[in-house]
Design goal:
two-stranded antiparallel ribbon, 7 helices, alpha/beta, 10 strands, 206 residues
Length: 206
């Protein structure tokens, strides 16, 4: 299969409305932030053709790094299905990381493959500020893992996320980013140049 590009992924995300742009009617995030963009990559798992393309794009990126990876780890909950598809395709062990330890049983925060002493790639669906992804990194490191990289489907490209990943010394790679998606949306006349600028200005606030 030919290399799947960031532009193709942007087209998929817009087509299935995993990413919606509403500069004139902002969304309210759970944090209370009024945003002209909303991303729900969970929609991908309900679209087999798009899901296949996303998984293939992940695998195309990771296949050259397999000698440096022992475990694929998904973030709970949105990263879990993608990590499962990727680990199945690449025939690799998988784990997933909860936001916190269970309050019962063995009180595990990390389930699946053992990560102590292992080189782990974290699979995430979305990078906004980077906080939740880096909490997963912290949990894996505390369990004795070496986190090789975080790989995500989409990023808003916020400065605070770049700074956070840099501070934690964690490489980040995303299959698609906001700049690519906005260029595709403008080319398809889904948004105007002025609306594109409004969204960019919002992103640059963070």
């Amino acid at each position: 299969m030919n290399k799947i590009t960031a532009k193709e992924i942007a087209q998929h995300l817009l087509t299935i409305e995993a990413v919606e742009l509403r500069p004139d009617q902002p969304f309210t995030w759970s944090s209370g932030i009024k945003s002209p963009i909303y991303c729900d990559n969970r929609k991908i798992i309900g679209q087999p053709a798009v899901r296949k393309q996303i998984v293939e794009a992940f695998c195309q990126y990771l296949v050259s790094k397999l000698s440096d990876i022992d475990v694929i780890a998904g973030t709970s909950t949105a990263g879990i299905p993608h990590a499962a598809f990727i680990s199945q395709t690449l025939d690799m062990p998988m784990s997933y990381v909860r936001g916190s330890k269970k309050s019962h049983g063995k009180q595990n925060q990390i389930e699946g493959a053992q990560v102590a002493g292992k080189r782990v790639v974290v699979i995430e669906d979305l990078i906004s500020t980077g906080g939740s992804s880096l909490e997963v990194v912290d949990a894996l490191r505390a369990a004795g893992a070496e986190v090789v990289e975080v790989v995500a489907i989409f990023t808003y490209g916020m400065d605070r996320a770049r700074a956070a990943f840099s501070a934690q010394q964690v490489p980040l790679h995303t299959l698609c980013d906001l700049d690519t998606l906005l260029a595709v949306a403008e080319e398809a006349e889904n948004i105007t140049a002025e609306q594109k600028q409004l969204i960019e200005q919002f992103r640059d606030l963070y």
